[in-house]
Design brief:
The protein is an alpha+beta fold. The chain has helices at residues 18-27, 56-67, and strands at residues 3-12, 32-40, 45-55, 72-78.
Length: 80
């Protein structure tokens, strides 16, 4: 299966869920190219973008697992 490049955008609204997110991202670290996190204190959220190089199924599974964490939403853009 061919790998795709993707960006996963993550909004963290529940800071108590950050540890779960970090554990999940660690479990997928072999596919992660880079990560950028921006705290937005005025709105009490964290904005994170993750660049990945992985099979589409892995990208889909990771996005779903991120979105299933309480107080965290995610969306993904995948290369053609």
């Amino acid at each position: 299966m061919e790998n795709k490049i993707a960006i996963i955008g993550i909004i963290v609204e529940n800071l108590d869920s950050v540890e779960k997110l970090n554990i999940l991202l660690h479990n997928y670290s072999e596919f992660i190219i880079g990560r950028l996190g921006l705290p937005y204190k005025e709105k009490a959220v964290n904005i994170i973008s993750i660049a990945v190089d992985a099979p589409e199924k892995i990208i889909h599974d990771l996005t779903e697992k991120i979105g299933a964490i309480d107080g965290i939403s995610s969306n993904t853009a995948v290369s053609k």
